[in-house]
Amino acid sequence: MINLAFDLPDLPLGPIAAVDGEVHLVGSKSLTNRALLLSALSQGRTTLTNILRSDDSKVMLEALRQLGVKVTEDPADPTTVTIEGVGGPFATAASPAAPIKLFLGNAGTAMRPLCAALALSCGTFELTGEPRMYERPIGILVEALRTLGAQVEYLGTEGYPPLRITGIGQPGVSAAATAGTVGAAGQAPATVAVAGNTSSQFITALLMVGALLPSGLKLQVQGELISKPYVAMTCALLQRFGVSVVNHDFASFELAPQQLKSPGSYLVEGDASGATYFLAAAAIAGSVTVKGVGAGSLQGDAHFIEVLAQMGAHTEIGPDYLKVSQGPLQGIDLDLNDMPDAAMTLVPMALFTSGPIAIRNIGSWRVKETDRIAALACEMRKLGCVVEEGADYIVVDGNTDACRQICSDLSRTIAFDTYNDHRMAMALSLVALARPVIINDYRCCAKTFPDYFERFAALAQPRTE
Fold first, then answer.
1. What's this model's pTM, rounded to 2 decimal places?
2. Catalytic, out of 55, 301, 341, 417
3. Is 341 a known active-site residue?
4. How far apart are CA 319 and CA 297, in angstroms?
5. DSSP alpha helices (H): ranges in 95-227?
6. Contact (CB, 8 A) for 366 and 198
């Protein structure tokens, strides 16, 4: 392994000769925050194991406590929590004069689903976050919730957080039962139409609460739905909590009124998105096995290993593990709309492929933690790469004389900015397999993978020449 200066705000890394070993993955961010909220809305007690302990799950857990949910953490295992479900939408005494104020950082997996859940709840709530959250659109979801009768106000820029929500629930009355636009039990389901081309989290948020409406929900997707595997994940998880979703080929969804019911216990899969960095490093130089995710995973990013195989890496998929070993890598040109987070990992791999890396249909990168297309284009140009960026694509060519010269000139320091984006920090760590780098503000990876760089260092073998 290599020794890293973890006491510094910016991390020197590399040069790394190879990677080798095993990684036991932290829990999936996407599954953790979904499971936490569904557990809170369910009837019964749920014990969740292998949850991700990160900034994103921290704000979700704190929000649930503020909403009156009993959360018990296992003192012997911080990745295990027990949630006492409230059996439906939240019932609070919060009023417009004294709203419950929830700070949600930059966690889209907390902001969007909680926004929907609170719209059906009793009380007034204010959802705030970090400055970047106020640049991430939410207007599509808000309009859908207004259709259902909720009062949602923008406290800043129209279409973006922060928000004030007055839910349609009433004390002692099931949520939405008195909202004329929603309908009552036995009537036709409430119908909303949502554009599918900005964020799949809007669809996920509505699906997570649709069964709590007394007449159920019919959700129509306008246009092509992006990131379908994340929605499929939501549907599969709802099934574990007793709710059936009728999926009409991702063009529309139907949920009959149903009670969310605790499964008793639920093991959160390892983070397939986090696995991509270790697997990509192995494809470049070495061999790595990641444990905690494998065949049958609910996560679309588990299919990243198939992209590596297409590029020339040697791969193996087991029931609960993925293994990659290096091979001569070629460039690719792929539509990766179904795995936008994993797709980022491919960009620095352009330094090690025989041809360019082209990633298409990734317009959602523009509204993530940062504008990821612009940010990666900027950082890869520091290495002499030729980069072409468009509204929804990026092409990176590392086979240039300038790139080869910069990567071989070890006297020159290359520092990467991370834009307070965890995936920028982790993806750019792969460049250390080509030359020494500095990862500025590397601790931003605490959003989803707090000890990523420690895990990466444990696999890495330093270059000795």
1. 0.91
2. 341
3. yes
4. 9
5. 108-119, 139-147, 200-210
6. no
